[in-house]
Amino acid sequence: MFELIGIPPQALFGQLLLGLINGSFYAILSLGLAVIFGLLNIINFTHGAQYMLGAFVTWMLLNYFGIPYWWSLLIAPIVVGFTGIILERLLIRRLYHLDHLYGLLLTFGLALITTGVFKQIYGVSGLPYQAPALLQGGNNLGFMYLPNSRAWVIIASAIVCLATWFVIEKTKLGSYLRAATENPTLVGAFGINVPLMITLTYGFGVALAGFAGVLAAPIYAINPVMGENLIIVVFAVVVIGGMGSILGSIVTGFGLGLIEGLTRVFYPEGSAVVIFVIMALVLLVKPAGLFGRTA
Q1: Residue 143: pLDDT above 70?
Q2: How far apart are CA 34 and CA 29, in angstroms?
Q3: C-alpha closest to that of 282 among 291, 290, 271
Q4: How far apart, in Å, are the Cα atoms of 127 and each of 16, 111, 195, 263, 276?
Q5: Would you state the torsion angle of the CA atoms of residues 265, 271, 274, 276, taken in this order, to the nearest 10 degrees?
Q6: Are 62 and 69 within 8 A, CB to CB?
Q7: Measured on CA atoms in the order 235, 104, 184, 182, is the torsion positive or negative?
Q8: Residues forming a β-bridge with 140
């Protein structure tokens, strides 16, 4: 059937799979943004820099301390999350009762500072990171050769996204988090430390960006600007899914990755803008996003 419209199956399924890989990064990064905005009402523009930081921490752990990739999956998100906790304690918590614009400006400035510091130290040429033995090589799927490192990105991203959704939407801890953002005084009356819960929530959202950076380290060259272009796309994903929607960020992230892959097959010139075109159309029809709630 595909040959009838002039498209080899290898090209179609290959691009769909590559789109799914990109969608895995869109999903996990937009999930972190959705957690932070949905529960804290902060537009976290440092997310791209924190994604970059996760990749750099992974590189540093291996090259400075000899700590392998598999340990970095745990350590790097914790390190990045801890930097987020420090930022929340010192700066961001002062903005919770102000307009969203203040949080956007603050986090945008922090992103510029973070990127600038890493540019000064490491340059912009990119640092290689060798994948561990288990992620080297790949499998012949018939229509393309799938490297193990990219297959791992899809699996790990899906597991983390679904686990996060389950905790926030289906557990008592998640109900406490949602209640704390809507009525912190009432939740505090039950003996729950609301400020600490909010701080840890921001740290967790940041840690998700760090985890995405770890996944990216064996695939892409690690450089200070690796998050700059990606974060614009991820914000578009969040807007399409619905600002603060956990399920929307996951479904939209994977879905838009697939649509982007299809666009590369049928109209390659439009693949760079298709997500933004979809965002404009969605906002015209449903300004709150596909999974968002109208006020």
Answers
A1: no
A2: 9
A3: 290
A4: 28, 20, 38, 30, 30
A5: 160
A6: yes
A7: negative
A8: 145
Cβ-contact 260, 274 below 8 angstroms: yes
CA distances from 98 to 67, 94, 95, 121, 177 (A): 42, 8, 5, 35, 20
Q: What is the pLDDT of residues 42-65, one digit of tens each?
A: 889 999 999 999 999 999 999 999
Q: How far apart are CA 52 and CA 19, in angstroms?
A: 21
Report the candidate in 17, 33, 18 with the shortest Cα–Cα distance to residue 234. Answer: 33
> Please, are residues 209 and 51 in contact by the beta-carbon 8 Å criterion?
yes
pLDDT at 1: 47
Tens of pLDDT, residues 11-25: 777 788 889 999 999
Q: Is 145 helix (H, G, I), strand (E, B) or coil?
A: strand
Q: Please report how the helices 9-40 and 172-182 are oriented relative to each other, as an axis angle in degrees rounded to 10.
A: 60
Please say whether the beta carbons of 24 and 153 come within 8 A.
yes
| Average pLDDT over every residue of 280-286 | 93
Q: How far is CA 42 from the centre of its chain?
A: 15
> Does 2 have pLDDT greater than 60?
no
For residue 185, count other CB atoms closer than 10 A to its CB: 8
d(CA 106, CA 177): 24
Model pLDDT for residues 60-101, shown as the tens digit of each residue: 999 999 999 999 999 999 999 999 999 999 999 888 888 888
- Cα 10 to Cα 17, 27, 134, 140, distances in angstroms: 11, 25, 26, 12
Give the confidence band of 112 by pLDDT, cuts at 50, 70, 90.
Answer: very high
